[in-house]
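From the shared-data thread, chain only:
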Amino acid sequence: MTSASQFPNLLEHNSEHLGKFRYAEPAEIEGRNRGYDLIFYDNDEHPVTSVITNGLRFHEMPSLLPEELVCTLNTGQEGFSHYIVGIIADLILRNQRGIEYDSILVNDTPLITETKIHGVLGYPSPFFGDEFDLLRNSDGKPVLQLITLLPITRQEAEFADENSPDELWEIWAENRTDLLDINRGSAV
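Structure, as tokens:
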């Protein structure tokens, strides 16, 4: 059983990488307990807001490590981050199966109407450095995996599935794709 004492420095870790804590939406909402809180962080260095789950790690399910999910978008688009993290966290809890890096989750229709975003790619954070992705205990052992959800278009999902998420990342880098903008077009 996973306990809070296994993650004594999680809040400090999140603040160090994601920015200043803004708001916590409790797990108990609309008359039900969804099984996780959603925490909002604002980054003063860059105009971005991150939404991260707080509580997925306490659910027993197959995954390499206990995990939490995070989505970072431009400030002003945090409602979309909230929605994306919430639907993927709900999917994980419903299926009782965590996701790993390079997981591609895609929908037939846009996840967010009036955008080209059809899914997400679970990936190490391209925004906050390698130290963000794993929370380590005092012995240096990884105890929690933080999986960044990158919104992707249908074409990008198909490309990553046929080739690899790393090859998609190379195309994003070559095209200087703004992964922080939910309204962006496809890079492939």
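Strands lie at 20-25, 28-29, 32-33, 37-43, 48-54, 67-74, 104-106, 117-123, 134-136, 142-153.
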